[in-house]
Amino acid sequence: MATIEVADIFRTAGPAYRVAHAGHLSLHQLRIMSAVEQCRTAALGGHVEACTDCGHWRIAYNSCRNRHCPKCQGAAARIWLAEREADLLPVGYFHVVFTLPAEVGAIAHQNKAIVYDLLFRAASETMQIIAADPKHLGARIGITAVLHTWGSALTHHPHIHMIVPGGGISLDGERWISARPAFLLPVRVLGALFRRLFLTRLVALYHAGRLGFFGNIAHLDERRAFLRHLSPVRKKRWVVYAKPPFAGPEAVLAYLARYTHRVAISNRRLLRFDEAGVTFRYKDYRRGGADRQQVMTLATDEFIRRFLLHALPKGFHRIRHYGLLASGTRKNNLERARHLLAVAPPPADDITSAPQPTLPPCPCCGGHMIIIEIVERRYQPRAPPAFASSPGRSAS
């Protein structure tokens, strides 16, 4: 069965979608659609590669490098992981998730930059405040946080994934305090503080006139309606989920590879694209076991609409570091942590720069491929050079 890609859906149905929704799509969304459609096509240019052993040649077109493109995130994740590997400490790592309730999610969707930033700040401060409390851990911790805005069915579901070392540096800086083997911080305490910090600041943003309300929530522009909308949310338990610690640094890196550069839907989840719409796999978290994996078909316009729901504001950082891992002090904090843990720093050779891209080996003989021609944007490459099709050499 032929592989289906989001790019195929956009190329086929994108023009009609843009016409049908003219005036309702932002320039940012239009650019995302265009980038995904043109990714690894002649429109972006590329190069011709040839094998130095058998002469086989192939055309490789450039990637769009848009962070919403399903095809471009693998290389970005590998580079990012190489930079993070040297930061890992020889301790257990926990996975913590902070989720916004649906009532707040609707406000977040129409105020993405402001409310997503508030989500980051409230979640990270919650973790650091509770961790510093002597009744709990009594230490300064490090956090790597990643924003996801989608549920498995492409619905709007903003939440923060965190990777947190199982311990931290004491408040006086003199010792490392380890978390209990399978317990980091109490989730009910985290949820209560997260709710208070987030709602207090959301109301402050409203009073400062920094929130906008449109469409089916336009009535929230009126103060009493806004406060009435938040009233049940104040009584609801806000979900904070903490998983057991990972089994070693390799598992942490494997998790990060899956989560840090994920987009709303990967190409491998797509099953069919036809007149009925787009069919894809998703997880129904209300079910257990094998029943959790489900299949859904959406009308093509609805699929595109849901995909574009998750367009992040231009320049918005969806991966952030806090506490011991905050950029300005990370190096000194990690050196101090390793000293307190009595472990040697990673060898200088292990702290490498981002890996340089290498060409995949020749599919015919496994030989070394070299670039023999640069293809300009929107131009097709010339026929293969003479040496690539000389007698005894394959040119296909």
Kindly describe this structure:
With 396 residues, this protein is of the alpha+beta class. The chain is built from 10 helices and 14 strands. It has helices at 6-20, 27-38, 73-85, 102-110, 112-132, 187-207, 223-235, 249-259, 300-309, 330-341; strands at 46-51, 57-61, 93-99, 139-140, 142-150, 156-165, 167-170, 176-178, 240-243, 270-274, 277-283, 293-298, 319-323, 369-375. The strands form 4 sheets. It has a 5-stranded antiparallel β-sheet with strand order 9-3-6-5-13, with helices on both faces. Strands 2-1-14 form a 3-stranded antiparallel β-sheet, with no helix packed on it. Strand 1 (46-51) and strand 2 (57-61) form a beta hairpin. Residues 387-396 have low confidence and may be disordered.
Key terms for this structure?
single chain, 396 residues, alpha+beta, 5-stranded antiparallel sheet, 3-stranded antiparallel sheet, 10 helices, 20% strand, disordered C terminus
Strand content: 15-25%
Tally of contiguous helical segments = 10
Helix content: 25-40%
Which segments are poorly predicted (pLDDT under 50) over 5 or more consecutive residues? 387-396
User: How many individual β-strands?
Assistant: 14
Radius of gyration: 25 Å
Coarse shape: globular
Please give the largest β-sheet: 5 strands, antiparallel
> What is the average of the pLDDT values?
88
Order of strands across the widest beta sheet?
A: 9-3-6-5-13
Briefly note the structural class of the backbone: alpha+beta
Distance between the termini: 23 Å
Order of helices and strands: HHEEHEHHEEEEEHHEHEEEHEHE
